[in-house]
Amino acid sequence: MTAALIITTAVKAVPVKQIGYSGLMVPVLEDNLLARRWAEGTITTDALLAYSAVCGTGLDTIPYPGDIGVNQLARIFGDVASLAWKWNKPLSARLQPVAGKKSGDVTEYSGPFLFNTTLHEVP
Fold first, then answer.
1. CB–CB of 60/28 below 8 Å?
2. One pLDDT digit (tens) per residue for the chain, 123 residues
3. pTM for this model (two decimals)
């Protein structure tokens, strides 16, 4: 949390015009190390959402089993919205249910932009 705050504060302190996201992003499926940490269970949905309290990401490319329920998705989006409202800041949620996959399965992305990882049960 402290590292996320330091990075975000440093980026925002640079005296240039900033547009779009200007801070720390933690895109699980777009970073090989983050995908490995997700597979290990070191990074969780709740931890990533907590980082959003001090940086401007929300939940970015978070992999979920394809059978995730509408109520589960609504709860996650609700948590993101609550945090955004509380801190009066925009947060995004790019959630990635993987069709045909369940908790414990490994994703099978073949393109150069997404890294494979293990799916976990939805919190």
1. yes
2. 888 888 888 888 889 887 776 667 889 999 999 999 999 999 999 999 888 887 777 899 999 999 999 999 999 999 999 999 998 888 889 999 999 999 999 999 999 999 999 999 997
3. 0.82
90 Cβ contact partners less than 8 Å away, ≥ 6 residues apart: 56, 84
- Rounded CA-CA distance 103/121 in Å is 5
How many of the other CB atoms lie within 10 Å of CB of 2? 7
Helix extents (H) in 16-69: 32-40, 45-51
Residue with structure tokens 């090989």?
A: 32
